[in-house]
Amino acid sequence: MTDQTKSSTPAKPPFWRDPDKRALVFQGVFLLLVVVVLFTLIRNTMLNLEARGISSGFGFLETSTGFKIAETLIPYDESSSFFTAFLVGLLNTIKVSVIGVFLATILGFIMGVARLSKNWLVARLSAVYVDTLRNIPLLLQLFFWYFAVLRPLKNPKQADNFFDIIFLSNRGLYGPKPIFEDGSGLILFALIAAIVGIIVLRIWAKKRMENTGERFPVFYTSLGLIIGLPLLALIGTGFPVSWDIPELKGFNFRGGMVMTPEFSALVFALSIYTSSFIAEIVRAGIMSVDKGQTEAAYSLGLKPSWTTRLVIIPQAMRVIIPPLTSQYLNLTKNSSLAAAIAYPDLVSIFAGTALNQTGQAVEIMGMTLAVYLFLSLTISSLMNWYNASKALVER
Amino acid sequence: MTTQKYPVGQHPNLPPPNNTVGVLFWLKENMFNGVLNSILTLFSFYVIITLLPPLLKWAIIYADWTGDSKDACTKDGACWVFIRVWFDQLLYGRYPSDSIWRINLSYVIAIVAAIPLFFSAVPKKIKLVLAAFLLVVYPIICFYLYYGGGFGLEVVETPRWGGLFLTLVIAVSGIVLSLPLGILLALGRRSNMPVIKSFCVVFIEFWRGIPLITVLFMASVMFPLFVPESLSPDKLLRVLVGVILFSSAYMAEVVRGGLQAIPKGQYEAAAALGLNYPKSMILIILPQALKMVIPGIVNTFIGLFKDTTLVLIIGLFDLLGMAQLAATNPNWLGFTVEGYVFAAVGFFVFCFSMSSYSQHLERVLNTGHRN
Amino acid sequence: MTESNQRELSDEIVIRINQMHKWYGEFHVLKDINLEVTKGERIVICGPSGSGKSTMIRCINRLEEHQQGQIIVNGTELTNDVKNIEEVRREVGMCFQHFNLFPHLTILENLTLAPMWVRKVPKSEAEATAMHYLERVKIPDQANKYPGQLSGGQQQRVAIARSLCMKPEIMLFDEPTSALDPEMIAEVLDVMTTLAEEGMTMLCVTHEMGFAKKVADRVIFMDAGQVIEQNTPTEFFENPQNERTQLFLSQILGH
Amino acid sequence: MTESNQRELSDEIVIRINQMHKWYGEFHVLKDINLEVTKGERIVICGPSGSGKSTMIRCINRLEEHQQGQIIVNGTELTNDVKNIEEVRREVGMCFQHFNLFPHLTILENLTLAPMWVRKVPKSEAEATAMHYLERVKIPDQANKYPGQLSGGQQQRVAIARSLCMKPEIMLFDEPTSALDPEMIAEVLDVMTTLAEEGMTMLCVTHEMGFAKKVADRVIFMDAGQVIEQNTPTEFFENPQNERTQLFLSQILGH
Amino acid sequence: GATLDSIKEKGFIQCGVSQGLPGFSNADEKGNWTGLDVDFCRTTAAAIFGDADAVKYTPLSAKERFTALQSGEIDMLSRNTTWTQSRDTSMGINFAGVTYYDGQGFMVRKDLGVTSALELDGASLCTNQGTTTELNMADYFSQHGMTFEPVVFEKSDEVVAAYDAGRCDVYSTDASGLAAQRTKLAEPEAHIVLPEIISKEPLGPAVAHGDDQFFDIVKWSIFVTVEAEEMGLNSSNIKAAAANKDAAPAVKRFVGAEGSLGENLGLEADWAVNVISQVGNYGEIWERNVAPLELPRGLNNLWSKGGIMYAPPLR
Ligand SMILES: Nc1ncnc2c1ncn2[C@@H]1O[C@H](COP(=O)(O)OP(=O)(O)OP(=O)(O)O)[C@@H](O)[C@H]1O
Ligand SMILES: Nc1ncnc2c1ncn2[C@@H]1O[C@H](COP(=O)(O)OP(=O)(O)OP(=O)(O)O)[C@@H](O)[C@H]1O
Ligand SMILES: [Mg+2]
Ligand SMILES: [Mg+2]
């Protein structure tokens, strides 16, 4: 038998019939094509820029902008650099996204659960909510919230006044802003202590339950701690906090904290629109958990509330997380519609005003896209990581 | 309680006891069982009662319906005269009114050709022919009808396209053309050739990671920077290309889901029968995968349909853009809300019917595995 | 037929069902059910598909609600009262056709969850009990795996152990073997037989007639929502009274 | 044991496997396989789960790639050469455990697809052939149904007919009956027996020992990636040489 | 140059205009564009093709306009754009002249009782994104030690809507723009324009770097309209003047009967006749477009009449 064997490795066919080699050649050609196309695009852009004498490079980032921005999270004025303006826009984008995601999640979960409610009326209402909001374009909703809600609001002189500290007008919602004076460090300390305390409490309560089976009202105790401790510190140090209360001076309120109509409309529209999608995701997630799971839990004697918490939610979350991630991504990207209603987000400030003042479209759009890609990849990798850690183990 | 005894096994079916059926019982079971539920029910009633009557008053009872100028709007409610006067523009943009029949004709053709696709009694062959017509021949007819030129049709430049018509043009061509691209990308992403695979991954993740308005901005004003000067296609065309690339990335992910759901055995059976890669894809895998993801495709389409409103930011006037334009006409100031409501209803009708259809399909596809 | 399962029964009644009726909407699914189960009794329920077997035993731990008549379990009457329901469910264990293990928890966690939350047993004790029952069902080595990693037979045995961990007075089984491959059926029936021999009160819906003959004190035959016949296995199989029973037996044994 | 299947075999060798090895990653799944199959020979392959039976027959039509040694089918060596692979696949039909019919095509379309696209047979002719084979497997009346509408046994018979429509020289079967209910197993084995009696070269992985005894010319026993024993069925069942074979036979026949 | 060649090849000029500013560039229901800025697209088309209608319009937001011009998406930008040094140089564009001398102003509601911009400390200002307005406001307010809240929209229609809805106290843009946008307010009479003009805003068409010949053509098709007004030539008498063999030498040069003005630009000899006969002289353009807004001619009058509109000699 051995003498029949010419070689122990199979003979080699000509390369065009060998799938491995064919694949190599194909990929080589494809790669070449991609490189050529990319190269041509870049070369063209360079040539075009040069031919038209448009300045290029990132030098502009250091020059001062000369324009003002209404809402900033970091110090910024006309003499700040374009890079600072970029950061201002980026932070504003992150701000609306984070708040929007937070609200959309809460609202979405409520609506999703409501749609499964045994209460017929509640289920119907939430179905109407979901079906209406997800079938109307976001931009339209944005305009609606901005213009329809702005109009009926009064001007600052006739602002709706709540206890002389909160004012609602067409300039936004003004409220008092805490100013921490000397000794307020203790309050921060108390807050940290409360958080540490809660963590310790949770661990202790879990241990105790494991050891004795007794349960401890962790949630309410935590709530008490996080409010009570700083409050105690506040009283103990004799209220070293003063409030900057908004006051009507001239045209507008001065001082205090403000939620502008632009910000509110954007957050409103984004979170309501997204919540209608999240509601559907949550509903599908809960429905994906087999009825048998509930029955098994009931027949073991678990109460409905425990069943939901220990059996249904953990299983539903696995189904919910992946589509929820894409909704978070969508919300973040959709926050770029801010430009339409004057909220100074990244696209509005940087890819808008700054682009126009400098004329350096390529650099600015490049940076903007890079930021969005970075945000998207961050969110999705966080969620993927979470998801992988919770994946069901199967055979 | 009846204590009447029946012989063993002869117990008749009795109606359920009174306290477990009827309207009152239903109300109690579904709306007022327990304190919490009763509160929720009352709260819901409150919501309905505060929202509905004012809405009805505004939209119907105190609304103006007849007339042809702003002066006809005398009542407190909505002025639907505004919509009536601008109706053609909202639907067709600035398309010349004596040519609107061209657009309507294309709608009629589409509807006539598409209806048989929804009846299972129609033979598969005819369906295939119709689908091929709709996907290949029909777009050409449409382009000719819309743009004109030659054979006696007057040219209508794309800047005059607008309203719902433009919305449909962008959304439909976006979805139809992004499907093949999406399929290629999905296949590429599942390929075991590293170069192809990474290209597809990067391509898909790139387009999914950036906001559509930046894409539209680049397509509408930056595009000529990237290409040689000689290349300068129409703005609408460039926007379409942007939209197609954008939605193809989403489409790719939808199709990939379908491909993943095809059991390995199907690939193996195809291979064992001697079908090569392209043949087994076209004949075996894709038909199954695509059928499975029709709901996903419809959902992508709905998303795209709504996203077309963003073109108003770059100066194309879709349905919403037209509504805004009409509301800023000096002769018709003050009817912004009517314009928005009309646009909202328009979008809602389209999107809601499509999403109901896709949910219906989902149910059919889920349960219909055995035929 | 072996007579091994003819034995003295206590006369303490743990389940009493009294003229019980149930409707699904307009559909009269259970009709005038009367049943008394004494402590330690082993009852097998059989009957054609759709006859209401599952519905009946699900009424016993109030997974379904009955509309007329009484069900009294261990002295507690099942009404709308949540407290009663909880009490009964603590005392009654149930195994389902599709096991219904919690897929996101390990086997051990599946077994300790209810004792810790419902009976407030400390974790270490709950785990000891869990391991004990896992040994009883012969799979202690799988304790840290997830349900998805076990075979069907193993999963069903875990499900039985999970119920047992609650130390129930009564066990209900709803076709525990009908979703299993033949080799696995044997494993599960083995466990159930051991349980029966130890004196657990059991109500078991099953078509495994071998099991019925071997362990049941009483076989109940249901059809169209009614109890048609009940008897000792010997009598039931050898000498069925009702013609519907005869028909059913001829079908099921001839198969 | 019947001797009905002892008959003259041609000495034309259609499959030659020569010192063949295969790895999955680091895992050595097939070790030094040597096998010669003559035209018309019927071979049954058995062995414990995971022993590499499926992998071996899947290597024969290159659904899996081997890394060392030679496989020559009908004079064509299986290498990376696409042309050779296509040639071999045209000559070798295969039936899978889960049938793998194409659910979006009717039975008739399932049967005509490959002849039309691979062998470029005109449609009318392909349909005639298809109907012929559907009659052979006794379900011509199902031609216009979809696979989802047939029972498992019917589906498997369609799968066999689908392979036959390509007029293969050799048929491979990978546990064709193990996903079927007992009643359906008989239908499928019937068809396979007829096929065997008509002189088709067959390699069949199966645990149906009755079938093996009735039709096989040779039984091959595999364990841990190796061919442990091969012999005529009579010898194999009555007088197994290797102790692993004995153990396996005792398990499978005792079951 | 390249731009001119591609224009000639296409047969029309792609002209970037605003998305709707009455008097400057505004489209009617049918999509026909009118306005001062539009007319200067038309003068260029008349000069090159002898046909003022050989223009296609691209409506652009302020934010898009320079990118569109840089990229070649449009051939010329005639969109109430302020000529500034940095735009002229680093953005790679050339301003071809000034068609309207403007300055930034403020509009407020009458009932606010404000009479001067110096009383605007702390006010909210609505304006358009991507304009010199944003920069001027910042300068002006900090110069006078005042603060303000900018509310900056992408499209001017949205600015008007937000101002009308009461989001801002002040609407700031070029004075001409204020007059134009005021017509879009629900009650135009309820608003006043404050007297302060805080900046110089010379508005005019721009072209991209790289084609001097086209640049010259755009530039001189503006100048001929001013020169024509000064010479008393207008759309109704220009044809007669061209036919008149005994006209003054300057007129003869103007209509191309003498000299080589057209040839210098690479155009037909009668290019200026086409411009004036089809579009009109500057005065006519003004009367047609700007006068209805009730804006005074002011600086935009001829130098000989107290303004600063002044065309270099055509010789
Ligand atoms: N939730 C429900 N709503 C309405 N009808 C139901 C419901 N559950 C069961 N039924 C009906 O009640 C009848 C009895 O069902 P049940 O499941 O108790 O039968 P079974 O004897 O257990 O049958 P099987 O042997 O098939 O499990 C059947 O006709 C069934 O269709
Ligand atoms: N794609 C694969 N990658 C890695 N290992 C594999 C793969 N396919 C099979 N194996 C392993 O190779 C071994 C042989 O598998 P094979 O399917 O050939 O066994 P078998 O004899 O057919 O078993 P069975 O009777 O269960 O079908 C098994 O241990 C299996 O786990
Ligand atoms: Mg049942
Ligand atoms: Mg196998």
UniProtKB/TrEMBL annotation, chain A:
List the membrane topology term(s). Answer: Multi-pass membrane protein
Any idea where this protein resides? Cell inner membrane; Cell membrane
Entry keyword set: Amino-acid transport, Cell membrane, Membrane, Transmembrane, Transmembrane helix, Transport
Name the predominant localization: membrane
Query: Which domain of life does the protein's organism represent?
Result: Bacteria
PROSITE patterns for this protein? ABC_TM1
- Pfam families attached here? BPD_transp_1 (PF00528)
Mention one GO biological process in which this protein takes part, according to its record.
Answer: amino acid transport
Q: Which residues form the ABC transmembrane type-1 domain?
A: 90-383
Membrane-spanning parts? 23-42, 96-116, 128-148, 186-205, 217-243, 263-282, 337-355, 367-386
Query: Gene3D superfamilies, alphabetically?
Result: MetI-like
Assigned GO CC terms? ATP-binding cassette (ABC) transporter complex
- Any one Gene Ontology molecular-function term assigned to this protein's record: transmembrane transporter activity
Q: Which family does it belong to?
A: Belongs to the binding-protein-dependent transport system permease family. HisMQ subfamily.
What name does the UniProt record give this protein? Answer: General L-amino acid transport system permease protein
Read off the lineage from the record.
Answer: Bacteria, Pseudomonadati, Pseudomonadota, Gammaproteobacteria, Oceanospirillales
From TrEMBL, chain B:
Q: Hey, what's the signal peptide range on this chain? A: none
Grouped into one coarse class, the protein's main location is: membrane
Q: Which GO terms describe its biological process?
A: amino acid transport
Tell me which UniProt keywords the record has, alphabetically.
Answer: Amino-acid transport, Cell membrane, Membrane, Transmembrane, Transmembrane helix, Transport
Q: Which GO terms describe its molecular function?
A: transmembrane transporter activity
Q: Does the keyword Transmembrane apply?
A: yes
User: What name does this protein carry?
Assistant: General L-amino acid transport system permease protein
Automatic annotation (TrEMBL), chains C, D:
Q: Which residues form the ABC transporter domain?
A: 15-249
Can you name a GO cellular component term?
Answer: plasma membrane
Where is the chain membrane-spanning? none
The name this protein carries in UniProt is General L-amino acid transport system ATP-binding protein
Membrane topology is:
Peripheral membrane protein
**Which Pfam families does this UniProt record tie to the protein?**
ABC_tran
The record ties this protein, via InterPro entries, to: AAA+_ATPase, ABC_ATPase_HisP-typ, ABC_transporter-like_ATP-bd, ABC_transporter-like_CS, MetN_ABC_transporter-like, P-loop_NTPase
Q: Which domain of life is it from?
A: Bacteria
List the subcellular locations: Cell inner membrane
Give the family this protein belongs to, as stated in its UniProt record: Belongs to the ABC transporter superfamily.
Q: What is the lineage of its organism?
A: Bacteria, Pseudomonadati, Pseudomonadota, Gammaproteobacteria, Oceanospirillales
State any single GO MF term.
Answer: ATP hydrolysis activity
Q: Does the keyword Mitochondrion apply?
A: no
For this UniProt record, give its keywords in alphabetical order, as a comma-separated list. Answer: Amino-acid transport, ATP-binding, Nucleotide-binding, Transport
